[in-house]
């Protein structure tokens, strides 16, 4: 369901791997009984039209059913915990000209990428609350 990378791609305004995330949330939030029924009815194929009409924009994410929101919220928290430093520490480093200039060019680029990723994840947390 998640694809080769095993991750979902989030942008500022929407989920870029919306089909994978939508299907994953749907399946993970099903009861065992619902999952068995869904699988027996070849539900995997029947949802294509429904999913074509659903875009996981930020607004749509905020309207997810409670179990899906909680699952996604907890997943975002786990992802944020996997980073070495929090958003504030990254922001402080970006704002500290002396410390920033001591970083190699590669470290500076990595800092910008991590900071951007964390900002998107924090935005997602706010949407899901």
Describe the structure.
The chain has 129 residues and is mostly helical. The protein has a single domain, classed as set domain protein methyltransferase, domain 2 (Alpha-Beta Complex), CATH 3.90.1420.10. The protein contains 9 helices and no strands. Helix 6 runs antiparallel to helix 9 and helix 7 crosses helix 9. It is elongated and about 60 Å long. The chain starts with 17 loop residues before the first helix and ends with a helix.
Please give the radius of gyration in angstroms: 18 Å
Helix residue percentage = 55-70%
Secondary structure tally: strands: 0
Low-confidence region ranges: 49-53
CATH class: Alpha Beta
CATH superfamily: Rubisco LSMT, substrate-binding domain
Average per-residue pLDDT, rounded, comes to: 85
Which oligomeric state applies? Answer: single chain
Strand content: under 5%
Domain count: the total is 1
The CATH architecture would be: Alpha-Beta Complex
Helical run tally: 9
N- to C-terminal distance: 25 Å
Task: Give the SSE order as H and E letters.
Answer: HHHHHHHHH
Could you say which overall geometry the principal axes of the C-alpha atoms support? elongated
Subcellular location: Nucleus
Main location: nucleus
Pfam families: Rubis-subs-bind
Biased composition (Acidic residues): 43-53
């Amino acid at each position: 369901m998640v694809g080769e990378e095993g991750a979902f791609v989030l942008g500022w305004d929407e989920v870029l791997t919306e089909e994978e995330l939508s299907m994953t949330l749907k399946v993970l939030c099903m009861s065992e009984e619902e999952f068995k029924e869904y699988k027996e009815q070849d539900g995997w194929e029947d949802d294509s039209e429904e999913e074509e009409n659903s875009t996981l924009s930020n607004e749509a994410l905020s309207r997810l059913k409670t179990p899906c929101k909680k699952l996604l919220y907890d997943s975002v928290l786990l992802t944020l915990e996997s980073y070495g430093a929090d958003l504030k520490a990254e922001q402080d480093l970006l704002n500290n000209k002396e410390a920033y200039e001591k970083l190699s060019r590669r470290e500076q680029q990595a800092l910008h990428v991590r900071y951007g990723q964390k900002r998107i994840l924090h935005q997602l947390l706010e949407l899901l609350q």
